[in-house]
Amino acid sequence: MPCIASRSRPLVLRGTLTTFRRRCGKPSCRCANGQPHESPALTFTEAGRTKTLTLSASEVAEVAAAIERYQSARAELDAQADSGLARLRSRRAGGGRR
User: Fold this and answer.
1) Which residue in 34, 44, 55, 78 is deepest, having the highest Cβ count within 10 Å?
2) 26-63, pLDDT tens digit by residue?
3) What is the pLDDT, as a whole number, of residue 84?
4) Is residue 98 part of a domain?
5) Left, alpha or beta for 47 (phi > 0: left; psi -120 to 50: alpha)?
6) What's the domain range around 89?
């Protein structure tokens, strides 16, 4: 994702940052003794299915910021929708049409 930073618009992502912990299965590996391999990942829903993108350590901060931008934009949109519903209810309660 290094080329993402060069775009003119900031990256916006929907999803959750997670950490995968897994064992590779090699009997001589450190993960066989209880220290699983860890890697950061982004999980998100697409077409009704959960998808996962494994991230490099250098991408984590950028992806976290993009998720925050999405959550902020969504909160603002939800607030606008709530305000619109309140205005519509108020208008209907007054009995007048505008």
Assistant:
1) 55
2) 989 888 888 899 999 999 999 999 999 999 999 999 99
3) 96
4) no
5) left
6) 2-93
Q: In angstroms, rounded to a whole number, what is the distance separating the alpha carbons of residues 6 and 86?
A: 41
Three-state SS sequence of the chain? CHHHHHCCCCCCCCCEEEEEEECCCCCCCHHHHCCCEEEEEEEEEECCEEEEEECCHHHHHHHHHHHHHHHHHHHHHHHHHHHHHHHHHHHHHHCCCC
Question: Taking a C-beta distance cutoff of 8 angstroms, is the pair 50, 43 a contact?
Answer: yes
Q: How many CB atoms lie within 10 A of CB 2?
A: 9
Which amino acid does the sequence have at 20?
Answer: F
> Using 50, 70 and 90 to split pLDDT, how confident is the model at 74?
very high
* Total domain count, the chain: 1
